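Input for the complex:
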Amino acid sequence: MPLKLKQFLDDLLEIMREDYQQQLQEIIKDARGITCLQTLDNERAVIQIDRRRIKISGKAPKTQINVRITLSRNCLFEILEGRITLEQAFYSKELEVLGDPVTLLRCYRIWERIMSLARTSARITFLTYRLR
Amino acid sequence: MGLYLIEDTAHISSFALPSIFADRLPLYKEWHDFVFYDRRKHLFSFLNFGVYGNPYDAKRGYGLALLFFIDQRGRTYAEMKTIALRDLQVSPYSPDFISEDAKVLYTKSNNLFKIKSQIGKLACDLQLPVILPPVSSKEIFLDVVKMHQTINLGMTRGAMEMSKLWDNWAELPRIPVSGEVTLNGTTVPIDTRTGYHDHEGGRFDWGSTWGWDTGVVLCDSSARKEPEKIEFRFYRWGPSDKLSHGGIVIGPRNGKQKYFDSGNIHIERTGRFSSGWSVVPGITRLLYPDYHPDVPEKIVFSASDNQDRLDITFTPKGLCSIVAASVCGESERVFNEMFCSATISGHVGDTVYDKTIPGWFESVRPRGSVKHYAVEA
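Predicted:
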């Protein structure tokens, strides 16, 4: 049984708090004000970053959401394992990202930071693979 | 020189797990490399099985298995798998590396490595009998001193810099390989005499090494026009070629070995590699969409002294770039594992060489290195 999206995000935050406290604080600083609706297959989670913390919830007012990301588990692992590029995923419509360009650029910096950490953290890698 | 017997392989190639009281445990890393080329099937293989991070911290330590192949059409195949420590068995008493997806088993009674692995669509099932005793870094140093008959500053500096980072290093200079390899559903039988194995480990962060160039020309000892062996190793402790030391050892068929020291070798790198390549971990493509390994089209070693001359031109035919990220900072190191054709010309003693032989070249550099592999200091 694959891990649920919301549980994954909660566990990821827990690992970040335990192993990468400083990077977590930098992510919060960079991402302050972003509310992201993340869809993975049929599951949804809202990632809200306020002044002090990152909150994972099931829903948020539509007006607050400024980034929407939709992808499938299959597409996620195709990208993570290097079989397709981000560009290919966009053009094949397997990955949809909606939001204003400035907010998306801020999001990209956060993803980049998490992906970089994931390469040295077996904990993040194993947690991610529980999604499959 | 011969410090060891074949029977010592079990001990020399075992994972030298540090004590639980040792310092720098989170920086521990140790691995097996197996390299071979089957000349009839035109198949190159580089297999790596390693342990990274604190081996006593089940949350943060991990194992890693990498399968890399290049087929007769030059297509590259690479798969990497991260293994949780709870699913991995390694010990200081045996070279075994046992997990569900990758098994390296060493049988002491007949001195045989067996490798069985399946990761994604790649698989291998191989037997590698040990036919020569293992050689350690100490032995190589003593051999080099014996051949060269002097110790120069570069040698001592290189040895000192290596010992700062590495706890162990050993090789099996020639190992036959038989069995089969499966690439995306196609099984290729393997039977070759030109295998090579090394095993190394240490406790250091990737950010603290400037890298090295090492490799072997995969000589067939039964072919009359080929030497017994050619190996090279250049270790770097700074950002330019001047801050490195190493040499080339050639073993002609008369049993005597010849060593060319860095001081007698000119290295020239030209062009830019443009054939097939793979990059692992896959996430690298996501982080650096425009990433292209900084590998030359040709690398020429020109070695000569008063008596002998040897030119080796390495032409990379296929490549797997492994990007290793520092756990202490933001720096990264790239392992470029290259399958090359090595054209050898020149003479050592009475033996004249003019032959092209397959070879393996491992070049480790900081990511983002610029021209000639040097990095702006």
